[in-house]
Amino acid sequence: MTIDKSWTQIRKRSNSAVFWQGLQSFLQMAKPHVNDRGFIRCPCNRCINNAQHQLEVLETHIHRFGFMSDYNEWIYHGENVNAASSSNVPQPNSGVHDRDEMFEVLEDIISNDAEVDQLGSQSSNVQYDDLFTALNSELYPGVSSFSSLNFLVKLMHLKVMNKWTNKSFDELLKLLKLAFPKMDLVESHYEAKKLMTKMSLGYQSIHVCKNDCALFWNENSMSETYPVCSESRWKMQAGRRTGKNVPHKVLRYFPLAPKLKRLFATSKTTKLMRWHQAGKSTDDNVMRHPVDGRAWKDFDRKHPEFANDVRNVRLGLAANGFNPFNNMSISYSMWPVVLTTYNLPPWLCMKPEYLMLSLLIPGPQSPGKDMDVFLRPLIEELKELWENGIDTRDAGNDRKVFKMRAALLWTVNDFPARSSLSGWSGQGYKACPTCNEDTPSMRVIGKTAYFGHSRFLPSTHRWRSNLEFDGRTERKLPPCRFSSVDIMDQLRRVKTTIPGKHPNYGGVKRKRGDDELNWRKKSIFYELPYWAEIELKHNLDVMHIEKNICDSLLGTLMGDPHKSKDTDNARRDLQNLGIRSELHLYEDGNKLMKPAAEYTFSEANRRKFCRFVRSVKFPDDFTANLSNNVAQNDSRIVGLKSHDCHVIMQRLLPVGCRSLVNKTISSTIIELCTFFN
User: Fold this and answer.
1) What is the distance between the alpha carbons of residues 497 and 502, in angstroms, rounded to a whole number?
2) Which of 592, 577, 581 is closest to 444 using CA atoms?
3) Burial class, 91, CB count within 10 angstroms (exposed 0-12 / middle 13-18 / buried 19+)
């Protein structure tokens, strides 16, 4: 039977019924010959049988780019299959394209594009034309190991990993073009970044009000001034705009949906995204992943329609400030907001390659109470992902399209950042978010102290009747747990405030009413339909807490005047409370004397401990060289990073303190260190 192939020569394809009928017949003939993933070679003039796509993509490509002219025997699509080994049949190009891994990358990106799902769509992903042009171009005449696109991606990767500046990258490109004039390469970092954006690796630049009042986004995107504070969107000089419109602040927003869709684009990662169902612990007393925790199970119980599809994504959010200039003399705080996917197994969900940067909040000041202003784009996308979901191809399920939804389960921060995100202030007499209005606190010299921790012990515990802590017995029960209904009732009493730092608007300090407790605001997270019912909304970062405790504990043991908690005011507080009389300050003539405490190293023991830290040898990459943190005169330990504190608390301090303080104190220190293990 002769196959009519005349339709492949038609140039005006858009309105040709003959071309359309021929194309449909070709697709019907090719349909039985797709592979187990539903892919088949694409004979369009751009892919020339080198790339494989699904039939829907073939239809779009052939309609837009035309049918390759020298493909006369359709051996890959059902015609005379037995002749596939014939020497006179043109084989796919064995040059750069067969070995270029960027083909698979682009296939994953395009196959997840929602426009591709529409049969007969003529949009044809024009945005990918430049990518395919770079992919089909040799980097240099005769060089078949790299396409232009592959080389550029690897070069950009080197730039990021080695922290090259944009200027140095531009100079490198100029040098390469000068040394290799025939090299097919972009001219500047700006052009390279534009090309990477088409691979869903870009971000949105959103202008921010000078006073952090709001974003110039959505309904305010075209405004020149913000209607509340009336400040100009642009930087001004002498009351006039500069020659070029330069915004005061720019928020970088990295859309979440393309990154989540990418996780289902390959069979490897889509399998990992189901791990949380198959890998959870069968022992109720063992927790090795958040899926084994009570908060996860409670969320599944309250939202069964979300939990029924294991492919729906569970997210965690982390945010904190850092100084990007590597110069501590410059006060500048930039806040990245990072998301992690808890569908993945525990050994992957915290790996850098699976952490997704969502927002880059500009400085120079931390957002503080105005954090909600910057979170607005992310919250709107999370609401859309929860309510409507997004069409996504599942590489592990015959490339079928499913409706992917996502939910934010909790945040992970240190205590100050938790205050900015949750709306509950971490300062004052009711600073504890768990105890809430039942927080036990008192005013001591220069600060607020929190006591009454014995109330968490069993009612018969001997420490409840011990008078050495605050001079009285503890009879109170542990604080009650506040339900979501109780919390929402408290939030209804919180007054709505204007965001921002303008001195006449959001920057005006106000005194909270007694009925507002420690709430400063109702967090933007409560706009998520499920947030109020989440049992565990905010987690504290153990590494931050461990570092703070290690610094304070070491400072007290070593008698460091800058970090010790055993200060003169602390001794006066003991005297005012009428406890620990052996530690009270006393006068000796004209001098105020401070008795030595059992929990502080003597000068000789301090040097012994420093020499012990200096002498310990660790395996490679286990920790930094801690001997560099020991002062030359073996008098103190300085400059510890978070991981250094982690190693000292769990490995060195329990061993090093045993012979330097009495057994009661060393046992307490060992138990404290074991808590973090």
Assistant:
1) 13
2) 577
3) exposed
Beta strand extents in 243-311 (DSSP E only): 249-253
What pLDDT sits at residue 124?
41
Find the length of the chain: 677
Which residue shows structure tokens 């769509």? 121
Kindly report, residue by residue over 553-582, the tens digit of the pLDDT.
Answer: 999 999 998 899 999 999 999 999 888 889
Burial of 519 (0-12, 13-18, 19+ CB in 10 A): buried
Read off the DSSP letter of residue 512.
Answer: P
The 10 Å CB-count burial string (b at 16+, else e) for 11-42 is eebeeeeebbebbeebbeebeeebeeebbbbb
Q: Which helix (H) or strand (E) holds 418?
A: helix 415-422
Mean pLDDT over 354-369 rounds to 92
What are the Cα distances from residue 586, in Å, to 469, 471, 581?
21, 20, 10
Number of helices and strands in the chain (H, E): 22, 18
* DSSP 3-state of 507: coil
Model confidence pLDDT, tens digit, residues 583-623: 999 988 888 999 999 999 999 999 999 999 999 999 988 88
CA torsion sign for 477, 478, 479, 483 is: negative
Strands 400-404 and 447-450 turn out to be: unpaired
Which one, of 449, 433, 440, 454, lies nearest residue 539 by Cα? Answer: 433
Question: What residue type is 503 in one-letter code?
Answer: P
103 neighbors 44 (Cβ within 8 angstroms): no
Tell me which residue has tokens 């057994």: 663
Could you give the C-alpha distances from 311 to 108, 131, 396, in angstroms and in order? 18, 30, 11
Residue 246 has pLDDT above 80, yes or no: yes
**pLDDT of 88 over the 50 cut:** no
- Residue keyed to tokens 């797709």: 34
Q: What is the mean pLDDT of the chain?
A: 85
Strand-strand pairing, 447-450 and 335-341: unpaired
Taking the C-alpha atoms of residue 360 and residue 266, their distance in angstroms, rounded to an integer, is 28
Selection from 347, 283, 272, 371 nearest residue 313 by Cα: 272
Tokens of 236: 């001004």
Secondary structure element (H or E) that encloses residue 30, with its range? helix 17-30
Contacts 24+ apart (CB under 8 A), 598-601: 598/661, 598/662, 598/665, 599/556, 599/557, 599/566, 599/661, 599/665, 600/556, 600/557, 600/558, 600/559, 600/564, 600/566, 601/557, 601/558, 601/559, 601/660, 601/661
Token pair in block for residue 334 = 């930039």
Q: Are strands 236-237 and 240-241 parallel, antiparallel or unpaired?
A: antiparallel
User: In 3D, which of 430, 413, 433 has the Cα closest to residue 421?
Assistant: 413
363-399 confidence digits (pLDDT tens):
888 898 899 999 999 999 999 999 999 988 888 776 7
Q: What sign does the dihedral 98-102-106-108 (CA atoms) show?
A: positive
